[in-house]
Design brief:
heterodimer, A: about 220 residues, alpha+beta, Immunoglobulin-like, four-stranded antiparallel beta sheet, about 20% helix, flat, B: about 180 residues, mainly alpha, Rna Polymerase Sigma Factor, Chain: A, Arc Repressor Mutant, subunit A, 2 domains, 8 helices
Chain lengths: ~220, ~180
């Protein structure tokens, strides 16, 4: 805390007394209910945090598993050698906590062509956001509201960003790293921010870039 | 549940470790420790218990799906950050749904009431509710949930200076209310 935080102790005390007086309302779901909900909605996530079963660890591996592993390694080697989205020499980089990561959003018109940051669009025209370089991490695309708030446009699905339903079939790079609108675009000026984070909930943001687009003159 | 917040970092980290080891009851312990506070915060942010419930479920499902490991060492502010983001997402969806309903001539869903608390009858609480965002969230996180300025900055994705400035503004407004009530000199 800073000295500034303590500048009105009388008011602080009154506020703390008033605001902490009432009990918190009962939450709608308990832990077991939330876990059941996660399973019903396809969230088989506990397996990702649980220790592997001993039976699985000691399961004998046959020659066919070795063959599959060899194929996977070969496939990865071929993919890595291909000129893909990283043809500019940039390779996927992971965002370690504290890393000085930097990104830049590019705005691409639906149908081709790039757009200046702050560029003018025709009403209803769709755009695709593309990160400057593939980045191994988690991404959130947000619309910045006039009041300074931000609204998540897409859930943070991790590295493999998905294309929105309005642009289904739009070409994407081999890693699927294309972000697209999933909402109708009204004639207005809007800013969008792409956050790259170390966690899937995008709570720990390491790099951001913002673009402003203007549909109002279209 | 209304006692002043105590530092739960050690308990939270212990629960996260047990959870990572496969003990799902550790997740339940985290929900028990923070669920009510998160839901109260979401009620204030969304001003609608239905939307707050939706954001509450989304937030804890996200935590469940990520294993919560990212919150190690600072689980509580991290959880509130996730919750705030979920609330914004839910509010945005609701705004779009309302616009669509209006375009089709449907009656918009009536705004829900917050859970009735003694706090809502208080003039000071009413004044807090009248504050613009993010000032309202800053005040609630500070005085209702006992977060310090760096934590509030993290949760609301503001700079610490912005948090302090918003606190100064909010205090100025709220002091007038308290002076009118005769609660402070």
């Amino acid at each position: 805390m800073t000295a500034n935080d303590h500048e009105d102790t009388e008011l602080d005390a009154a506020l703390r007394a008033a605001l902490s007086r009432a009990p918190f309302p009962a939450p709608p779901l308990s832990g077991p209910e939330l876990r059941a909900l996660a399973r019903r909605s396809g969230g088989d996530v506990a397996t990702s945090v649980a220790a592997p079963e001993p039976a699985q660890r000691h399961r004998p591996r046959g020659p066919w598993m070795v063959a599959i592993a060899a194929l996977l390694v070969g496939g990865l080697a071929v993919w890595w050698s291909l000129p893909g989205p990283a043809a500019d020499g940039l390779r996927p980089r992971s965002i370690a906590p504290g890393a000085d990561a930097a990104i830049r959003l590019h705005v691409v018109l639906d149908g081709g062509g790039a757009l200046d940051r702050g560029g003018l669009l025709e009403a209803g025209q769709a755009v695709v956001f593309r990160a400057e370089a593939p980045v191994a991490g988690f991404a959130c695309l947000q619309r910045l509201d006039q009041d300074g708030g931000a609204s998540l446009l897409l859930p943070p699905p991790g590295v493999a960003w998905t294309v929105g339903p309005d642009l289904d079939g739009f070409p994407r790079d081999p890693a699927g790293r294309v972000l697209a609108f999933d909402e109708d675009i009204r004639p207005t000026t809007m800013s969008y921010r792409l956050d790259l984070a170390t966690d899937a909930a995008c709570a720990d943001v390491r790099a951001s870039d913002t673009v402003t687009l203007d549909w109002s003159g279209g | 549940m209304s006692e002043p917040h105590r530092d739960t970092t050690g308990d939270d980290d212990d629960a996260l470790r047990r959870w990572a080891g496969g003990d799902e009851r550790a997740f339940d312990a985290l929900v028990r420790a923070h669920g009510a506070a998160v839901y109260a915060f979401l009620c204030k942010v969304t001003r609608d218990p239905e939307l707050a419930s939706e954001a509450y479920s989304d937030a804890f499902l996200k935590v469940f799906r990520t294993g919560g490991a990212e919150g190690r060492g600072h689980f509580r502010p991290w959880l509130f950050t996730v919750a705030r983001r979920c609330a914004q997402d839910v509010l945005r969806t609701e705004r779009r749904r309302t616009r669509t309903a209006a375009a089709w001539g449907d009656e918009p869903r009536p705004a829900g009431d917050e859970p009735v608390n003694a706090e809502d009858n208080d003039a000071l609480w009413a004044a807090v509710q009248q504050l613009p965002e993010p000032h309202r969230s800053v005040v609630i996180l500070r005085y209702r949930h006992d977060f310090d300025s760096p934590e509030i900055a993290r949760i609301l994705e503001l700079s610490e200076k912005q948090v302090r400035d918003k606190l100064v503004y909010a205090r100025r407004v709220l002091r007038k209310v308290l002076e009118a009530e005769g609660a402070v000199s």
